Amino acid sequence: MCGIIGYLGKKPIVPVLLEGLKRLEYRGYDSAGIVTLSNGKINLVKQAGKISNLESLLAERPINGVAGIAHTRWATHGVPNSTNAHPHTDCGNKFALIHNGIIENFGAIKTDLISKGHEFKTQTDTEALVHLIEEFYKHHMPFEEAVRAALLQVEGTYGIAVVCSDEPDVIIAARKGSPLVVGHGDGENFVASDVSAIIDHTKQVSYLDDDEMAVVRRNGIEVKTISNLPVQKQVEQVAFELGRIEKGGYDHFMLKEIMEQPSTIKDAMRGRLIKDEGIARLGGMHEVMEALLNAKRFLITACGTSWHAALIGEYMLEEFVRVPVEVEYASEFRYRDPVIEENNVVIVISQSGETADTLAALREAKRKGASVIGICNVVGSTIARDVHAGAYLHAGPEIGVASTKAFTSQVTLLALITLFLARHRNMSAAKGAEIVQEMAALPEKVEKILGLREQIKKIAQLYHMSNNFLYLGRGYNFPVALEGALKLKEISYIHAEGYPAAEMKHGPIALIDENMPVVFIATKDSTYEKIVSNIEEVRARRGKVIAIATEGDEEIGKRADHVIYIPQTQQMLQPILTIIPLQLLAYYIAIMRNCDVDQPRNLAKSVTVE
Q: What is the tens place of the pLDDT at every residue in 279-335?
């Protein structure tokens, strides 16, 4: 959500900043802007829409300089337009600031500053902060102290980078609740909201924590707390290669990431399955091993796609570990004073590791004394650093806004946790070996489903102009119905609903007619006979049935208009297979509707505001 890059160094500055912004496009944005410093002046260019619009404007109005900052904005306060785009400047054009997050008390700050003669140009909360810095600077505070004084008055969340025309060799960055990383180079240094923005130039980074400020100069980076205490930051090596954030010959990142799933599922299991013993190894969980093994109750909290994975985890843990599990939206968990008792374990799930609501839920759970486990994808993310213990997905960067490979990796990791706990409690070695064998076979089975792309594309062609879809599943496949519907609505803008199949009779059946495609997840499992009855109910109302079924199931073929067959697997692992055709169906429908599948409107990859 929003993107930040700043640079001080020897290279031509505008190409560095523009390339960084392009690496951040996946986060979601509606405008972009850039500031450079030269000859004691601030040079500002910003534009609504895509970065290509900003590039065109820069071709007409070229700028250069010795330092600069750039930003992609996802609107919170003020409509998306060129005026509200970042960077924002003060009255005297001495300061320029970019900001991710929300300044909650900006109204009071703005009112006070207007009474002191400040003039505001935008509808944003961010502009209040740059004017506040100006106000302190006017009272003879040094640049760094003026920024610090302003931040001490701010309520809310921020990741900022700010420059001053009086000090062209300094960028000041600060963080509270919104991720920031500083990059270390040779005679050049960087600030970014995401390492992908700077991976072209350096792999040596330090992650800022909340209430920390970095004073970045071309020959060094000094980190302090907002209250001016020195901080020694560890310099870490970025592990992933640039090629992992390129399209690799695919038309879209989303398709690339769907096609990567045989590898990413295998990577999620790598070194964690012990085939001879039928158990799982979870090296990152050692610090909470006793709490895990003795847990009387699990709470899983997440948002969006990660919440759907959590629901599948609930079914797994309750069936095989025999402990009660509750799944909550993190946005609700953080506000409703949840009951957390002794011997409770909280699992937080987030692809980015920066989701604001999930991070707040994590901190609430820790405050109440729970052992907190994290499942996330981004190494060095805030959630990864704040939990007591956890495990990485090892899925590699996920650029497409609509999550695909992270979802199947999350479900895979929840299956590993389930297997680990069940084998330590009550699961036999024979059953454990059976699950391990099936898990090891998943990548090959996913590869087989991906081979059905042309069949799925033909189904998409028939229904891409539909206005509504209904997705139905039972048991483990009910969360898959939710996730399949979410994928379609996210990238195609078609209204889609996921429901438990049995609940169709309690409302959604009223919507079904000859124009309503209904997607059934109808694999051979313990609820198979029931879902066949649900298909008949839809057929009786002339609904169009698209079924995901188990290979060899001829009965479904007699009842459905279209059948996509997938390999057989353990019931607990079915969601990893059944979601694949639904991801592809959503992708092809969106392409046929000429939608931007990688950057769908109004959405952001990492939701770092409430």
A: 999 888 878 888 888 999 999 999 999 999 999 999 999 999 999 999 999 989 878
- Locate tokens 């899983």: which residue? 300
Q: At 167, which helix (H) or strand (E)?
A: strand 167-176
Q: How confident is the model at residue 508 (pLDDT cuts 50, 70, 90)?
A: confident
What is the separation, in whole angstroms, between the first and last Cα of the chain?
A: 11
Structure tokens at 405: 């490979």
In single-letter form, the type of residue at position 133 comes to: I
Strand 167-176 versus strand 517-522 pairing type: unpaired
Contacts of 393 (CB under 8 A, 6+ apart): 264, 268, 351, 375, 376, 377, 406, 409, 410, 413
CA geometry: angle 335, 336, 340, nearest 5 deg: 110
- Both tokens of 255, joined, read 């398709």
- What per-residue confidence (pLDDT) applies to 356? 84
One DSSP character per residue, 45-74 reads EEEES-HHHHHHHHHHS----SEEEEEEE-
Quick one: pLDDT band at residue 1, thresholds 50, 70, 90? Answer: low
pLDDT in tens, 44-89: 999 998 898 999 999 999 998 889 999 998 777 888 888 899 999 9
CB 502 within 8 A of CB 530: yes
Residue 223 makes CB contacts below 8 A (sequence gap 6+) with 182, 206, 208, 212, 213, 214, 215, 230, 231, 232, 233
Q: Are strands 468-473 and 371-376 parallel, antiparallel or unpaired?
A: unpaired
Q: Are 451 and 344 in contact (CB under 8 A)?
A: no
pLDDT at 205 over 80: yes
**Model confidence band, residue 411 (pLDDT cutoffs 50, 70, 90):** very high
User: Which of the 8 DSSP states describes residue 430?
Assistant: H
**Residues whose CB is less than 8 angstroms from the CB of residue 140 and which lie 6 or more positions away in sequence, other chains included:** none
What the chain holds in terms of domains, given with CATH numbers, is: 3-238 (3.60.20.10), 248-443 (3.40.50.10490), 451-596 (3.40.50.10490)
Q: What is the pLDDT of residue 142?
A: 95
Give the count of beta carbons closer than 10 Å to the beta carbon of residue 88.
28
Distance CA 407, CA 390 (A): 17
Residue 606 pLDDT level (bands cut at 50, 70, 90): low
Using CA atoms of 463, 465, 468, 472 in order, give the dihedral in degrees to the nearest 10.
Answer: 20
Q: Per the structure block, which two tokens stand in for 547? A: 């079924």
Alpha helices in 387-527 (DSSP H): 405-425, 429-450, 453-463, 478-492
95 confidence band (pLDDT: 50, 70, 90): very high
Active site members: 2, 605
Pick the closest to residue 412 from 443, 447, 367, 457 (CA basis): 443
Of 423, 394, 384, 435, whose CA–CA distance to 281 is shortest? 423
The CA-based diameter of the chain, rounded to the nearest angstrom, is 81
Helices (H) and strands (E) in the chain, counts: 19, 26
Contacts of 263 (CB under 8 A, 6+ apart): 443
